[in-house]
Amino acid sequence: MPIDPDRAIGADLGETAFTWSASDVLLYHLALGAGAAPTDSRELRYATEGDLRVLPTFATVAATVRATEPPEVRFPGIDIDLAKVVHGSQQVVAHRPLPTSGKATARSRIADVLDKGKAAVIVQETEVTDDTGEPLWTARSSIFARGEGGFGGHRGTSDRSPAPDREPDLVVDVPTLPQQALLYRLCGDRNPLHSDPEFARAAGFDAPILHGLCTYGVVAKAVTDAALGGDATAVGSWSATFAGIVLPGETLRVRIWREAGRLLVTATSLDRDEAPVLSDAVLDPA
C-alpha cells in the first residue's frame, strides 16, 4: 500500500500501559553483553539485583520486552513489508534515572514521514510517564523503508553531529557474540531478519544481522563504561544514526570525543575494514 503522508503525519498511535521487572532489565543488559567480567563490581551493577542501575536504552524495549510475535510496520497511512525495513536513528532522553521495575504508560504518534526518493523514513515519538503521571523518558526513532519512497512527500532536513576533526579522547574495542542476536530477540524483537538465514537472504543480507537497537545499546554501554565510570544513571540522553549493519560476532571500535560537555561517538566494524556502524552519536550526561 502506498504511503499516505496526509493520514500518517501526526497520527495518534494511542496509549500503551506496560510493566517491567528487575528480571527484564537484567535480561536486557545481559543481551547487550553485560557480565562478561563477572567479578567486576561495575559489571555487576548491570547483571545482578544488588546495586542494579538501568541503562536508559532499556527504554527501547521496556514496553515490548515480553512480546513473542514479529513486529508489524502498520500505522494510519502506512503498511510496509517487514523485510524492507531497517532502523534509521534512535534517541532516548531520560528525564530521571529509570527505575528497576515499574508501571508506565506510553503515548506515541507519527511525527513525520520523509520521502527520500528510493526510500521512506517514518519518524515516531513516544512520551512515557509513570503510574503517577510523572515523565520517565521520551523516545524518538526513525525507520528506513527501502523502495517505499516516491510518494510526493518532503525530504526533511539534515540534523548531523559529526565527530571533531581530531584524534578521539577515548577508543574502546567491543566484541559482540556470535549468538548476540538470538539473545537480544528475547527482549521482544522477534523480527526474523535477525534469526532466520533464509529470511535474511531474501531481504538482501548474506546472514542474519544484529538488531540495530542491540548495537545502539552495546555502544551506549561501552561509552558509559569508558567515560562515565560505568554509572548508567549518569546518562541523560543518547542518540545515534544507524550507518551500517553489524554481523553477530564482529568487534566494534568505538571512538569518543569530549566536546562542550557532551560525548560525541562513532562506531565501526573492525571485521569489515572499519565499515561505519553508528554515526552522529551523542551522549549527554544527566
Automatic annotation (TrEMBL):
GO terms for biological process: fatty acid beta-oxidation. CDD domains: HDE_HSD. Residues 18-147 form the Peroxisomal multifunctional enzyme type 2-like N-terminal domain. GO terms for molecular function: (3S)-3-hydroxyacyl-CoA dehydrogenase (NAD+) activity; 17-beta-hydroxysteroid dehydrogenase (NAD+) activity; enoyl-CoA hydratase activity. Residues 156-169 have a biased composition (Basic and acidic residues). InterPro entries: HotDog_dom_sf, MaoC-like_dom, MFE-2_N. Pfam families: MaoC_dehydratas (PF01575), MFE-2_hydrat-2_N (PF22622). Gene3D superfamilies: Hotdog Thioesterase (3.10.129.10). Residues 162-261 form the MaoC-like domain. Residues 148-169 are annotated as: Disordered. Belongs to the enoyl-CoA hydratase/isomerase family. PANTHER family: ENOYL-COA HYDRATASE CHSH3 (PTHR13078:SF59), PEROXISOMAL MULTIFUNCTIONAL ENZYME TYPE 2-RELATED (PTHR13078). This is Acyl dehydratase. It comes from Prauserella isguenensis.
